[in-house]
Predict the structure.
Amino acid sequence: MKIRKKDGVIGSFEAFCLCNYLIYTKMFLAMPRHLIEEAGPIAWAVPILVLIFSLLFFYILTNLLQRFEDLSFLEIIGELWGSSMQWIIGVLFAFLFLVITAYQLRIIGEFLLSTLLPQTPLSAVLFIMVATFVYLAYFGIENLARLAGLLFPWLLVAFVVTFLLAVGRGEFYNFSPWLGYGEWRLFVSTVNHIGIYKEILLLAFIAPLFRKHQTLRRTGFTSLIFVAFFFFFAMAIYIYVFPVHTGSELGFPLFQLTRLVYYGAFLQRIDPLFMFVWASISIVGMATGLYVSALSLAQGAKASDYRPFLFPLAVILLAIAFYHESSMEAVKNYRLFPAYIAIPFFGIPILAWLWALLFHRQRRQRQ
């Protein structure tokens, strides 16, 4: 299926939800712990500082897309640099999205084994999850987006209420010292996690599905601001409840918050509710990651349909997920990704924008 306006459109709210799911998945993994290790009590500021750069990047990205309103990001690459570069960059982004999804799959699979399914083989859990990804991605971005939009309000309420119930166990003193480990450590942590919101590039791959460019622009900026606020909210609650020396050692940090909720006989053990929320967001988010990977490969090869790529990519996804012998190795390597993977995610669109600005002044308009 080519991404063209005649193939259908995607609503602003549904695209907003997809971007949120794709980015939220990493928030439930080890990232809060890594932020605290690097920045200390001021780790809550990192998502806000990264947002400033991300808003500037998305402005550049939308400027590029506006110059070629009827094309997706990879088709713009083909216009600027030729079919060979379109194929190379398509394969590159397909691989990057696949690797990110594979590591998330492995870590979340290990979590499910340690909490809910201790007697279940890891292979069974991962196979079932990947089969679900393929099923969701196979029916296209519109159905995936509708599912995301349908679940989003309920999951949002459950998520916020669950976290607020844990606030009673915290202390404001945990935010001191107010500058954490110092301005330099805060800067280093910000640079290391500059790619927190890099998945906003999803909108560039599906740009022709928006009715108007203004809708795409509004969706992207709204998604970035909302996700950044949610990251800030989650980090602030986590630091408020757990002192730095404790928060930097916990596995699956945000899940640990839900285990502290206890209001006598009235309310306790709400962690199963959080697990449902986490699983729903993660499954839709990782299915979106697989979809974008297949779409990138199809657009890079100028194929008419992305679906034949889903099954081979699913096999590669499982192979990468099983590459590490333990989840600790996967978490350790996953920690190195944000800074390095952010380079092509941000660098290639910015370079394409500069090239179009300097050497390709003709604007293309939708018919």
In short: DSSP finds 15 helices and two strands in the chain. The domain at 5-359 is CATH 1.20.1740.10 (Amino acid/polyamine transporter I). The radius of gyration is 20 Å.
